[in-house]
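A reminder from the course coordinator: this example appears on the midterm review sheet, so study it carefully.

Given structure:
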């Protein structure tokens, strides 16, 4: 009986290893069944990238308007008031928390 178990020992260990890796190939973090989650995460990241790209474009435009060659009077006035904390007497000031 013991001799029979010894002959099947390596086969059983290899079978268990194949089963272990097969289960992880299906249900692991990067397994076959988790591709839907990965696709959803990819779509979220692409939407975030598009929003950040648009924000960067807006900031580059504002920075271009503040250069010496083409200074925008309205943008300069807005930034000066924001930094110095001044307001025109005709302006409506709405205070927002810090």
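Designed residues:
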């Amino acid at each position: 009986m013991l001799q029979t178990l010894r002959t099947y020992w390596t086969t059983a260990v290899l079978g268990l290893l194949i089963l272990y890796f097969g289960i992880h190939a299906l249900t692991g973090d990067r397994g076959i069944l988790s591709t839907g989650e990965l696709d959803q995460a990819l779509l979220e990241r692409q939407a975030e990238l598009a929003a950040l790209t648009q924000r960067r474009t807006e900031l580059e435009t504002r920075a271009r308007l503040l250069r010496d060659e083409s200074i925008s009077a309205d943008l300069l006035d807005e930034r000066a008031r924001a930094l110095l904390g001044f307001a025109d007497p005709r302006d409506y000031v709405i205070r927002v928390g810090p």
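The radius of gyration is 32 Å. The chain has a mean pLDDT of 84.
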